[in-house]
Amino acid sequence: MAQPNDFGFGEEAAMLKDAARKFFADNLPVAALHQLVADNHDPDRGPAVAWREDLWRQMVELGWTALAIPEAAGGLGMPLVAVAGLVEELGRAAFPCPLLGTLNATFVLAACGDRAAAALDDIGAGRAATLALTNRDGDWNPAATELRASGGTLSGTAWFVQDAGKVDRLLAAAHTEGGLGLFWVDAGAAGVRVHGDAIVDLTRDQAHVSFDNVEAVEVSANALAALNTAFPAIWTLLAADIAGAAEWQLQTTVEYANTRKQFDRPLGFFQAVKHPLVDVMIGIDEVRSLLYNAACACDTEPEKAGQYAHMALAAASDLAGFASSRSVQYHGGIGFTWECFVHLYFKRQKHSQALWGDGAWHRARLAEILLDTAA
Amino acid sequence: MSASARKDTPEQAEFRQYCRQWLAQHKPGEPPVRLPQSPLEIMTEPQLHYLQAWQKSAYEAGLIGCDYPQEVGGGGRGDCQRIANQEMIAARTPFLPNVIGLGMAAPTVFYHGQEELKRRLLPRLFSGEDIWCQGFSEPGAGSDLASVQTFAERRGDKWVINGHKVWTSLAHFAEWMILLLRTDRSHKYDGLSYFVVPIRAALGKGVTVRPLIKITGETGFNEVIFEDLEVDDSYRLDELGKGWQVAMTTLLHERSAGELQTPRAGGMKSGATHDTNSRSLIELARTTRRGEGRAADDPVLRDRIMRAVIREKAFEQTLRRSRNQALLDHPMRLPLQNKLLASELAQEVADTALAVAGAAGSLYLADDNAPAGGQWPMAYMNSFGMTIAAGTSEVQRNILGERVLGMSKSK
Hints:
Helix content of chain A: 40-55%
Low-confidence stretches of chain B: none
Structural class of chain A: alpha+beta
Oligomer: heterodimer
Strand order of the largest sheet of chain A: 1-4-5-8
Structural class of chain B: alpha+beta
Radius of gyration of chain B: 22 Å
CATH superfamily of the largest domain in chain B: Butyryl-CoA Dehydrogenase, subunit A, domain 3
Order of helices and strands of chain A: HHHHHHEEEEEEEEHEEHHHHH
Low-confidence stretches of chain A: none
CATH class of the largest domain in chain B: Mainly Alpha
Shape of chain B: globular
Order of helices and strands of chain B: HHHHHEEEEEEEEHHEEHHHH
Number of strands of chain A: 10
CATH class of the domain at 225-372 in chain A: Mainly Alpha
Number of helices of chain A: 12
Distance between the termini of chain A: 20 Å
Number of domains of chain B: 3
Shape of chain A: globular
CATH architecture of the largest domain in chain B: Up-down Bundle
Strand order of the largest sheet of chain B: 1-4-5-8
Helix content of chain B: 25-40%
Mean pLDDT of chain B: 93
Number of strands of chain B: 10
C-alpha cells in the first residue's frame, strides 16, 4: 500500500500538536521543570521520582494515553504520525511522565491479539504502563530478558525499566516452557520490587524490577512476533521525543548566540558557532522527515515500517548526541553550570541516545535488511 | 495509483495523463553519443543537438514552461510543471540542455523584464533553441558575489561593458547571458544592475569565450571577457541599481526555493554510464570482492553505506514534507536546505562508493575494468562543482543561519 503524500498528518493531528505544546508550556515551563526535578544537585544523590502526577491525570483525561489504542479495542486509533506530533511536544518540554511507556505497551498489546484485550482496557481506563524487557547488559535485542515464567508466575529481574516509579502496570517478556511470552503485571502485586536506579537524567526515572513468584496474566505466547510488530512504532516515538528536545536545544542556543556578545559581536556572527547550529537544524529536519515517514509506514506500509524506523532512530540517536554537545558548548561557561537549564535536556538526550538502540546498532540492523537479503 | 498522483487536482490529473501518453510515444531513442552526467558538461555539438531536439519537442508538446502565461510562450496552466517533471523523470527521458535558461534566466526575465522582452526571449528559451548562460562570478567575486567589478558605462541610450566573468557554464553554446554588473562604483549593493546580453552575436566583437577545464578533464564552463561591448538599454532588467534584488530572484530559483517550478527531466543513461545513487552504491558493495567475502561484509563500510542510505531517504522525505504546510515551522527552513543537502549527499554517496571500490576506484572512464564505467570517481570529482557552485556550502550555512535562525550576518 502506498503512503499518503501528507504522511496522514491531518487537521486533527495539527490541533493535537498545538494543544500539547500549549499544555506543556502553560503547566510546566522550563523554569518550573528545573525547580521540580533539579532541587538536588548532589552527584551522590539516590534514585528519585520527580513528576507532577496531577498533570499526568489531566493528560489521561484529555485522552492522550488512549490515542494509540486501536478503535476495535475501544480506543481512538489515531494515526501514528499524530501521536508522534504529540510526543515531539513532550520531548520539547522534557516533560516527566510515563506517556512513552504507556504508548509503547499499547503497541505491544495491540499486536498480541484477543488475549491482551483486558490489558488494553486497563490502559483505556487510565492506567500507566511500561515495558520490562531488558536484561542486565542492557541488550537492545527485543528478545533479551532474564525473566522466567512457570505455573503462571514470574521470577527474575528486568533491567532498565523506564519510568517504573510512575506506572501501575508492567508489560514483561519472560522465558516460558513454550518459548518467549508476554505478561501483564500489576506493579503493586505481591513479589514485585522496584529498585530505583541512580541515573543522570533528571526528567525520567529508571529502575530494575525484581519479580519473586509474581502472579501475572500471559497476554501472548509469542512475544517475538508481537515485539517485532510493535518496535517500529516504539523506535519512531523515541525519535520524536529526541527531535522535539533537540528543537528546544537549538532554539535556546540560537537565542543565546544572538544575545551574548564577545569581541563586540553576538556569538552567532562567528561561523564556528553559526555553522554547527545550522547543522543541528538540518539534523532535526532529517529526523523529523524520517520519523514521519516511519510513522506513516507503521500505519499504511507495515512491511517497510521496520526499515524506516531503523533509519529514523539511527539518525535521531546521533542527533541527540550532537545537539546536546553543541547546546552546552555554545552556552560557554554558564552552560557548564547547574543553574543553566540546558543540562536538563542534555541529560535527557544522552539517556535517549542509548535507550532502544543507538545509531550504530540501528544502522547494523538496517544493513542486514539492505545488504544481506536478496536484492 | 502512484503516490504522487494521489493529490492531483482535476486539471493536474488530466495533464498527467496527457504527459504520460505523449512520453510513451515520443520519448527520444538512444542517443548517438555518450551523454555527460549533467547539462553543465555538454562538450560537443552532437551531444548538444541531440538534447536540443528533445527539449524542442517536449516544449512543443506543452511539457515545458507549463505554468508561465501563454503571452510569453508558456502553457498558461496552474501548478502543472511539477506534474510534467514527475512524468519526464519517471519516463527516464534525457535531461534538458537549457538548464540555466529554464532554472534561472526564465524566472528572472519573467519577474523583472519588460513585457516586450519577455515575449521575445522566453519562447526560444523554453524551446531550447536559444541556450542561456549566467554571468555572475568573477575572478575576484566568488562567494562574495556583490563585489563584482564588471562595469557598464552609459553612453546615450547604450551601455558599454568591460569586465571578466568566470565559471560560465554553457557559454560556448549560449546565445544569451544573464549578466550581473556594476553601474556605480560608490555603492557595493546599490551600485549593481542586471542585464540580458546577446553574447553569441557579439563573439569576436567585444565578447571572448575561453573554455576552462575541470578537474574531471571535461570542459563545459568558460571564462567570458567583455571589451567595450555595446548593449542597448532595453536589455536591462528592472531599475538601475536594483541588480542585487534581481540576482536574488535568480539565486532563489537556482536553489529550487522560488515560486516557479523549474522544468526537469532525465534519467536516460547512454552507453557506459551508470547511476550514482545509493541503490547503485549498494549494488557496488554487494558485487565488490574483499578478501574471502564482499565489501558489503566489512562492518565499517556497512556503517558508512547505511549513513549514506539514511541521508538519501531523509532528503527524499524532506522534499515530501516541504509540500505540507502543517509540518513546517518556518516557510523557508526546508526550501533553503535543498541545495546544500542535495550536493553534500551526492558527495557522500560518491565518496563512500570510492571507499567500497577500493583499489578499483582508481580506474577511470577509458578503463574496461572500471566499476560502473568509471562513473564513481567522476561523480565524486563533479560533486565539488555542486558544493562550490551557486553559493558554496559555507555560504549556504550562512544563509540558513541568518535567514532562518536569525543569527547575526557574517560579513
